[in-house]
Amino acid sequence: MVQTMRAVVVEGEGGPELLQVRELKRPVAGPGEVVVKVEYGSVNAVDRRVREGYLREYAPRPYTAGSDFSGVVEEAGEGADLPPGTRVFGGLMPNTGGYAEYVKIDAVNLARIPDNVSFQQAASLPVAGLTAWSAIIALGKLGPGQKVLIQGASGGVGHLAVQMAHHLKAHVIGVASAPNLGFVRSLGANEALNYADSNYTQLLSDLDLVIDGVSAESIASIYPAVKPGGRVFSLFDLPPTAPDGVTAEFLAGGTGPGTVREKLENLIDMVSSGSLTPYISEIFALELAGLAQESPRRGKVLINPRY
């Protein structure tokens, strides 16, 4: 058994140059824990924000970067229910340590990967997929024929949310950059709008649900198009005060009923059944983690610790 591992460590707060590859001791599983040999770590917007100082109480310095990952259980502690050799994915916390060759984690925060789902697909799911699931299904309670606006529709959360909403037979409006409009339509969006068109908000009306994955500031101009009783979720910050009859709130990924494992199992079942397809645009080595976090992305960006 190897005694050391390579990992991307963050020692301060600031830019991508803080992401440095270090050699650390390989973790050892305690009671209820497993050590996973990582196949892929996943890059999320929250990883970049944590590096810059957001949620610092959950990631005291120094910490190993990466909120989620996929891999194979290599060691299981006493009471852990995932034996060595099990293909798994999971993680949610900003200091999970997915940008590394090995991760130690409580087994209850992992789920098994079905044989027909790849490590790449599974690594793409925990943070982005559970955020989309919370917004569309668990809290948004979107139904057939309802109208949903998804801002940042081509990104990690957005491209999964579009597919979930389409599967529910909702009317899906996706907002993205001009080069990504075709991609958003291919995911099942009924309409794809260019965010660079300053007048696009004037085309909106009768919205039942809004998911904003861009910035809370953009939400105020959308409020007039939201129905009474409609819901607005901001994925980055507290949204502006909503008008009467509209509920607006900040959404943390994974909010909703059920254990972490149950939620992960719901997600992976969607992929296994073919109703949800994560799109992976780029894969980076550990040494390029800073570039990966700053990369404009369509779908998901991954880290391969063995590149």
Task: Output the keywords.
7 helices; alpha/beta; 16 strands; Quinone Oxidoreductase, Chain A, domain 1; seven-stranded mixed sheet; Rossmann fold; globular; 307 residues; six-stranded parallel sheet
CATH homologous superfamily of the largest domain? Medium-chain alcohol dehydrogenases, catalytic domain
- Poorly predicted ranges: none
- How would you characterize the largest beta sheet? 7 strands, mixed
* Residue-averaged pLDDT: 96
Query: What is the C-level CATH assignment of the largest domain?
Result: Alpha Beta
DSSP strand tally: 16
Rg is 19 Å
If you had to describe this structure to a student in words, what would you say it looks like?
- The chain is α/β, with parallel strands linked by helices and 307 residues long.
- The protein has two domains: 148 residues, Quinone Oxidoreductase, Chain A, domain 1; 123 residues, 3-Layer(aba) Sandwich (Rossmann fold).
- Helix content is 21%, strand content 30%.
- The protein contains seven helices and 16 strands.
- The strands form three sheets. Strands 3, 5, 6, 7, 8, 15 and 16 form a seven-stranded mixed beta sheet that branches. The chain has a six-stranded parallel beta sheet with strand order 11-10-9-12-13-14.
- Helix 4 links the parallel strand 9 and strand 10.
- The model has no long low-confidence stretch (mean pLDDT 96).
